[in-house]
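Before the break, one more example. Copy the sequence into your notebook; we will annotate it together after we see the structure.
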Amino acid sequence: MDLLTLIEEKYGLRELRWVRRPEVMMTHVGKRKVSYWRERDLLEYHLNFRDRLFFTSGILCNRMIRTLKQEAFIPIDQGYLTVHDFVEDDFSLELYPEMEGYLLSSIVRCGIGRHDYTHFPYRETVKSLLAIKSRYPDSYLLLISLIPDVKKRLCYHNDILNGTIPFSSYSLKEMMGQLYFECSDEAPRSVCEVLSTEVYTWYRRKKRDDFNHCFKALLSEIDRECRSAFVQSIVAPWEWKTCIQALQNEGSNVDRLMKEFIEKWDAMKVITGLAELSILEGRMAVHE
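Here is what the structure looks like once it is written out:
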């Protein structure tokens, strides 16, 4: 059966034609987007996550439109098909820079459970550091000299967040005057990896006032019980660990690695200071 005919039959849509085959189609109620899935587990993960995000936070996202029989997807050759709203208008982040912080906070809270915690792999990283001593003595001396600061950045909380979220690729759109999160169909990533990478990206790309607003919005949505672990997940010395791991690989460009590491380490000093202030403000609020 032709794909458009199948969609028409299952979803009750009419006047179907491709606008951008095989992803975007025009229907009698406007444009719709089509996604294709090979793995049933990944599809169901996204189905549940997107529904949960909408119902817990109210954030609009590219949820699966249900068929006439209220099914979230339909089987096709070698996989499954889902249909979504198609949103074209980009969200005006220049007017509301804090919305990225609010969005990420909502997604993380949606992606972690009450007991989703683990520990930063400090001992394993130190062992890896010792393994590069003879190969890269200058890099080794720099990295080992930072251990006191590494320990300081690990003193906010015993645990870091251990959930996963679908945040590898996404876009922010505007639908009916509201933020619309268009999540990609890719596999979910570690919450800690996303938090550290995203906050550092904000720091590099945003004006300083915009970054501060975004960072405060990120932490303002977190309840007091979770905030310390949330902050620890951001400021844990991930760039230190990543640099040491990269130096273990044959053929690494050491000069480039160390340059990128130093740039990120210096940026994280500033971000860690903001995190400390956030914790202090939270304690003051509790005291008051």
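The chain has two domains: 3-85, 99-287. Residues 254-287 form the longest helix (34 residues). Try to locate both features in your own notes.
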